[in-house]
Write a structure and sequence with these properties.
alpha+beta; EC 3.6.1.-; Nucleoside Triphosphate Pyrophosphohydrolase; seven-stranded mixed β-sheet; 18% helix
């Protein structure tokens, strides 16, 4: 029997502000060169917090330290040329990054790290990978913060329970 249940893509994003500028990445996409928050997909057996640290390192060569849970966001993306209709569920975290590791290569498709002021981020909205790029930064700038503990990860994520038939 085929499972016809709708399944959104779960992603994570890092929102990093330092001295009035926000960390973004510039990446090659099917739609061209876009700006995005350091972000990516949640992998099996990985907590959202682990995923955001991993994705930020892969895309920026910087170690991300989550300090707050920013929020849960949803967006839908249509790509008619490929017949794609994708809904994303994004868990966004705010925090800090260390200096980039000069010996670490960025993920395929990532062109560079970019630091932009809030006004520059707003002005570049046409180049954003999704509307969530600006929305997450706007929420951060407005002071939205939640404790990291608001996201609960059950121990079964790493050691699943085995149910007898």
């Amino acid at each position: 029997m085929t499972d016809l249940r709708w399944k959104p893509n779960v992603t994570v994003a890092a929102i990093v502000e330092d001295r009035g500028c926000y960390l973004l990445i510039e990446e090659v996409t099917p739609e061209g060169l876009c700006l995005n928050n350091p972000a990516g997909h949640l992998d099996p057996g990985e907590s959202p917090e682990q995923a955001v640290v991993r994705e930020t390192l892969e895309e920026t060569a910087c170690v991300f330290t989550p300090q707050h849970f920013l929020g849960l966001y949803m967006a839908r993306f249509l790509r008619p040329a490929r017949g794609e209709d994708v809904t994303y569920v994004r868990l966004a975290y705010s925090g800090t990054v260390g200096e980039p590791d000069p010996g670490r290569a960025l993920d395929d498709g990532i062109v560079r790290r970019v630091w932009m002021t809030l006004d520059e981020v707003r002005a570049s909205a046409a180049r954003h990978r999704s509307p969530l790029v600006l929305r997450c930064i706007e929420d951060h700038a407005a002071g939205r913060r939640h404790p990291l503990e608001v996201v609960t990860v059950d121990p079964t994520l790493l050691a699943p329970e085995v149910k007898a038939p």
